[in-house]
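Researcher: I'm preparing a figure for a lab meeting and need a structural model of a single chain. I don't have an experimental structure, so a prediction will have to do for now. The sequence is pasted below. Please return the structure as tokens so I can convert it later.
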Amino acid sequence: MKRIDFMGPSGVGKSYLLDHLKRERNRIRKDWLTETEALKLVPFKKLYYLPVTRSISRISEIEEKKAFKNCYKDWNNFFTVCRLGLNNYDSGSKNFYRSVSKLLKTSKKVRLLEKTINKKIIFDQSLSQKLFFIFGSNPKDIDSDLIKQYFFSMPKPKLLVVLTASNEVIYKRILKRRVEEGRGGVEYSGAKGEELINRINLFLEWTEIAIDTVKKNHGNVLVLNTAVGIEENCTKIINSIKCL
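Model: Understood. Here is the structure written out token by token.
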């Protein structure tokens, strides 16, 4: 698998860009898959005994569990860093369990597709993106070195697409999302006014650390400002994917 991670603080415009990118892909040669599409290609030959009525998602879940057995051995350093970040949560809180669940679910998908599918695959809720869930509980207490350790120890994607925007743009989008959709990102939970602005600024700093760390670790990084026209950004992404 050639893994393509998308990353950016909530409110940066990641979902909007990805939706447009998928529509563009459908008009041209299909050069990559989403993680959902890729999971449907997981071979079933070891699962012939399952009832035909079992859904693809159920079969993938069983395969995920098998693939994940070796994750802790291969990714031990990565999970050690993750545990340090999760220590900032109240271990009995809803957000703690949600963050752990999201980390393990994404890890299982990456491991499964890494072992079974030889294609270019885009991960929206990627391991890179999980940074904000794992360390977002009390971000001001997180040392920048821990963010560096996260990206040095994380299984490296073939391409990291980083989306950025000004803190003003993200702030307005978060407030709008809270009004229209009743949500604004787990990592911003409970933050208002100046606290919300400070948290956005800190997440943008983490994004810069991620870019620098992945580059130093000889990774491919594409940085896009979502203030630029969406067609231009999609063209840059498509061209970068073609070169993988």
